[in-house]
Amino acid sequence: MDREAGEITGEIDWMSRVFDSLSLPALILKPNRVVLSANKSFYKTFDTSKEEIIGQTCHEFFYQSEDPCPYETCPLTKVLAEKEGQTILRRVKIPGKKEKWEDRIFSPILDDAGEVRYIIEKIRDVTHVKRLERELSGIKVFLEKFVQSSISAIIAADRHGKILMMNPAAEELTGYTFREARKKITVRDLYPPGQAKEVMKKLRDESYGGKGKLPCSHTTLKSAQGEDIPAELTAAIIYEGDTEVATMGIFNDLREKLAQEAKMKEVLMRAARAEKMASLGQLAAGVAHEINNPLTGILLYAGLLLEDLGDGDPKYPDLRCILEDANQCRNIVKDLLAYSRQTSANKETLRLNDLVEQSLGLIRDQSLFINIKVIKELEDEIMLVKVDRNQLNQVIINLVINAVDAMERKGTLILRTYSDKRKRKAVGKNMAAGFVYLEVADTGCGITEDNLPRIFDPFFTTKDPGKGTGLGLSTAYGIVQENGGVIWVKETGQAGTTFILELPLYQAAGEAHEL
């Protein structure tokens, strides 16, 4: 018996040492919640002693309460009922100190009959883990808000192209909702054929920005409506170790930027053209005046000689040729003077529609329109402009003649007028009440891309030698500008060309003159 008792005592002592060596603070509780024992780690962690805890209930020690913890917050009752281990995460508030988080693990010790004899309660401080979780959760929330509120479109996809994430900007840009995109398409469908493969090739090429990175580059997105959207792309591959698991792309819509660049390019082109035309205008004026004097003499003396000679004189045809060529030179001088705007403008208030009708009636050779279908889409409202009547007639006639020549005198000519009273801007010293427009559209061969930037340049013409001086459109440009307006090509191509003439809408309707 002494030997058996010694073995039992040794076994108990050994188990006690194991319990005492646990790194986590631990208690042994009786089923009635009374503390039977505590290990060294517990005494150290909670700064207590055997005398202060042994014999007390756990709720008396931890919460200074005579009443047990409620069933739903204390797993010990469940341990007794189910005879299985339970765990609970608790937030511990200590007055004057930072809160703590504890993970409490309850493990039953069963007797030979299978009943719960004791319960071991281990306490693990997880405050640091919870703080990290909170920080990570905060970062996650912040990143989610950042992505969702970004004005750039952000799209992520797995290695098979399945879309994992789209922010609202991406939904707006592509025309797909996130739910639609996940069900209907892969990320490859957002690019024109073959372009997604090209992007991945660049991402895997270290020479573009490093492995897995693609710095800012231009691409094209395909919207749900089939529209090609020019975009700026920055992309990256997401790795787990060395394995590619996903890709992410950040897209910025370039449509507005490209439109602004095109507009700025047009403004700069107009400014350069105006400067060039001003310089050439001064030159043209000087040349015209210098040529005019000897030309007048040639016409005068050739005319006198022609009067003295009869039709049968062999010199008569030669003199006729001299007069015809001299008259052609006089017309060129006249165009040069018009181009340099050496004539003063006589502005009056006119109806735009009446100005169009009058200009058509002033075209001497009406046979030009034999095979031309003329369509007039003139707005019914009274649209008044304050311009030089003769100058604007010259501009409209020039546009019409050019359209007829472009169609080789066979096709459809459309003259369209309308207004935009919402568009207001400063014109000279005044604020225009709006703008009126005249469109001259033909079904001719169109203007080539190379020639388009040069059509308003002086002496530039695509007509055969002797059929044009190249001053028509440049003169029209200067006249329209002098009258406060703008002229430009709205569209051109194989289906034809449309010129737009824009003029300020005149405000004082009572000053209108009948044509």
Largest sheet: spatial strand order: 2-1-5-4-3
Poorly predicted ranges (pLDDT <50, ≥5 residues)?
509-515
The residue-averaged pLDDT reads 83
Summing up helix and strand content along with how strands pair, one would put the structural category as alpha+beta
Silhouette: rod-shaped
Number of strands: 19
CATH superfamily of the largest domain: Histidine kinase-like ATPase, C-terminal domain
Please work out how many helical segments DSSP would assign: 14
The CATH topology label of the largest domain is Heat Shock Protein 90
CATH architecture of the largest domain: 2-Layer Sandwich
Question: What's the gyration radius in Å?
Answer: 46 Å
CATH class of the largest domain: Alpha Beta
Summed up, the domain count is 4
**Beta-strand percent range:** 25-35%
How would a crystallographer describe the biggest sheet?
Answer: 5 strands, antiparallel
How would you summarize the topology of this molecule?
Blueprint (H helix, E strand, L loop, with lengths): L1 H19 L5 E4 L5 E4 L1 H7 L3 H4 L4 H6 L12 H7 L3 E7 L7 E11 L5 E10 L1 H23 L3 E6 L4 E4 L1 H7 L3 H7 L10 H9 L9 E10 L5 E13 L2 E11 L1 H54 L7 H24 L7 E5 H10 L10 E7 L5 E5 H18 L4 E10 L5 E2 L2 E2 L3 E7 L30 H11 L3 E8 L2 E9 L11
Parallel strand pairs: 12-14
Antiparallel strand pairs: 1-2, 1-5, 3-4, 4-5, 6-7, 6-10, 8-9, 9-10, 11-13, 14-17, 15-16, 17-19, 18-19
Helix pairs in contact: 10-11, 11-14, 12-13, 13-14
